[in-house]
Structure formats: C-alpha cells, structure tokens
Amino acid sequence: MTNGNRAQRPVVAGVDGSPSAMDATRWAARQAARLGEPLRLLYVADLPPLNPHVAAPPPSYASAWLDSGRKWLSEAEDMATDEVPELPVETDVRLGQTSDTLIEESRGAALLVLGTRGYGGFRRLLVGSVASTVAAHAVCPVVVLPAGTATVETGDVVVGADGSALGVEALGFGFDVASAKRARLVAVRAWHESLADAAWSGLPVRDELDKVTEQELRALHADLRPWREKYPDVEVSEHVVRTGKPSDALLDAAQRAQLIVVGSHGRGVVSGTLLGSTSQALLHTVTSCPVAIVRPKE
Fold this sequence. Notes:
Elements: E1 11-14, H1 19-35, E2 39-45, H2 59-83, E3 89-95, H3 98-106, E4 111-115, H4 129-137, E5 142-145, E6 156-160, H5 165-181, E7 185-191, H6 205-230, E8 236-242, H7 246-253, E9 257-263, H8 277-285, E10 291-294
Parallel strand pairs: 1-2, 1-4, 2-3, 4-5, 6-7, 6-9, 7-8, 9-10
Antiparallel strand pairs: 5-10
Helix pairs in contact: 1-2, 3-4, 5-6
C-alpha cells in the first residue's frame, strides 16, 4: 500500500535495547511496509531520580544514557532493514519521561508499537504503568507485543465488537489487518444481564436471555455490514457470548490468534474512564499474540 501525496504518518516503535523492544521493532517494520509509511524508532532517556540535594546531573550521567540509546537505535535500525529491505527508517533520541514522550509522538503517528518488557523507562511495561498510560492517552492505535510474539503471523484477527463507537473503530482496524494478511476476522460481542435490564419483561429467564442474545447478534450484524462491504475478501466469524468478563470471551476466541483488537474503552464504562477494564485485562494477561488498543480520534 502506498500513501500517494498525503502527509506521512510514521509507525513509531519504542526502542531501549531489550529483546522485547527488538521484537516490537520487527513487528513495526512489517506494519510500516504494509501501510506504506516510514518507520520511526524512538529511544527515550528516562533518567532515574537523583539525590534531591544535587541540583543537576553531571553531564556524563545523561550522556551515557543518550550514547546507549544511539547504539540501541542503530541496532534496531539494522534489524528493521533486515526485516524489510529498503524500508525508510528514521531514529530519534529524546530526554524526558517515557509515557509523556510516547503520547506526544502518537499525535503524528499512524501506529505506536511497544514491547511488554524493557530496560530503562520501558521496564515498567510488564506491570502496565507505561503501557496503560500510553494506551489510555495516545491519539493513534497502540500495539503492545508480549515477549516472543513478533513472529506470530498466522491465525485469526480477533476483535472486541461491543457496539460502542470505539468498537466500530476497532472493527475497521481489524478488517484492514485481516484483509492485508488474508486472515479470518473473529468478531466477539460479549453481554451480561446488566445490559439487558431494560429488556426484562417478566418472561421466563431462558426466554429472556435468548431474546437478548438475538438482539445482540442482530446488532453485531449491523456493525459488521459496512466493513464486510468494504472488505469482501475477509472471512468473518461472529460470536455473541453471555459473560460478565468480556476479556475472558476474547481470550477464549483468541487461542489461535495473531492479533487481538479492542477499543480503549467501550459501553458500560464510567464516564471519563480512559482505559476500560477489558483493555486493561488484556494488556495484563495476553501472552500469545500482540494486542492493539484503538483510541478515539481527535
């Protein structure tokens, strides 16, 4: 895919020399090639706190971190061009707070790609402090790669299709990837009784549950219709699941997946919540494939 004459929006990968960041670089390189965009490799020197009585770090302190970053970026650039020869790659070293810098970078990016375990400022990704913050505030979609998943290139693209506006955006992202990779798209719609309270009419419980399931299936059909028309080549499987934990339904459907896609938050979340319980749970628990978190467009 080429981008014609429009402004380029690079795929940005966070680099810190860790194996996880190198995995993210490889995956990001392939996505940049697919999108027809350049790859931007970013190292953030998120310096540890110093003694509060020290007015400023010695020049050698920051320089050592920045020199390490340049070395790691050079290695990552070599890996990216080995993965995709002739891919346009740019590198940058920044001094600052990791999540703030990544969020700022997302404003001009097509996609932001991170590993789950890193060194330096990225080391907290595994427990979610950076990943959750970036996924909650980034402007572009954020893809987080668990360790060892950079080479996962086969299997379904599983999408959480909850009927929210972001759920529809997630479907669009998922269909685009599934079409490019000739993968099946599995659309998962989870519901639980609290979503059906308005439909409760005193009928036997089983009849009422069947009625709500049919309503959810019709709604899923409607959400899928425009994407099926846009991507007629994509095989689609639909799953409507009654569960109190949508993340469990997604995990069940994603046992042979190459990517899970969800909105950063969906229906049923508290107003103002930046990252919903489902996307949070997936970031913490998925180990078999990358997870894409789709954010609202500004």
